[in-house]
């Protein structure tokens, strides 16, 4: 998995060059943890640290304040900066229906973005 600074560099470079992008919405850690509360094929035991769990909890709290699930907020976050499309990797109709609800609240306030950045440090 790439680092957040690398992701930001790619976003800035693409914006500067006018390049649109299609991304895989990699919210598998948060989404799988929400669903299963245990490791899955995409989520290994070694990936579950107390630090990451605390970040997931804080992001989940923010998502709830926004009236969204963490998966929905993750999709909005991925789409916020000149992204053409996000491949969400849903395997069930219910997941697609849930993810499409992200469209109901597509904007972040400056405060929300600051909170997300602080959580992800």
Q: How would you sum up the global shape? A: globular
Radius of gyration: 14 Å
Round the mean pLDDT to the nearest integer and report it.
75
Judged by helices, strands and strand pairing, the structural class is mainly alpha
Gist?
By secondary structure, the chain is mainly alpha-helical.
How would you describe this structure to a colleague?
The chain is mostly helical and 121 residues long. It has one domain (20-120). Helices cover 56% and strands 7% of the residues. It is built from 6 helices and 2 strands; from the N terminus they run αβαααβαα. It has helices at residues 4-17, 28-36, 50-65, 70-79, 93-100, 110-120, and strands at 21-24, 83-87. It has a two-stranded parallel ribbon. α3 packs antiparallel against α6 (110-120). It is globular and about 40 Å long. Residues 25-37 have low confidence and may be disordered.
Give a quick set of tags describing it.
single chain; mainly alpha; 6 helices
Task: Please outline the helices and strands.
Blueprint (H helix, E strand, L loop, with lengths): L3 H14 L3 E4 L3 H9 L13 H16 L4 H10 L3 E5 L5 H8 L9 H11 L1
Parallel strand pairs: 1-2
């Amino acid at each position: 998995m790439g680092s957040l600074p690398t992701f930001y560099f790619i976003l800035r470079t693409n914006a500067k060059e006018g390049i649109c992008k299609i991304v895989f919405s990699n919210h598998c850690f948060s989404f799988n943890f929400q669903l299963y509360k245990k490791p899955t094929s995409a989520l290994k035991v070694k990936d579950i640290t107390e630090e990451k769990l605390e970040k997931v909890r804080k992001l989940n709290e923010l998502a709830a304040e926004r009236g969204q699930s963490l998966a929905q907020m993750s999709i909005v976050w991925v789409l916020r900066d000149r992204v053409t499309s996000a491949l969400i990797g849903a395997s069930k109709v219910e997941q697609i229906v849930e993810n499409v609800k992200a469209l109901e609240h597509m904007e972040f306030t400056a405060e929300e973005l600051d909170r997300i950045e602080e959580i992800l440090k």
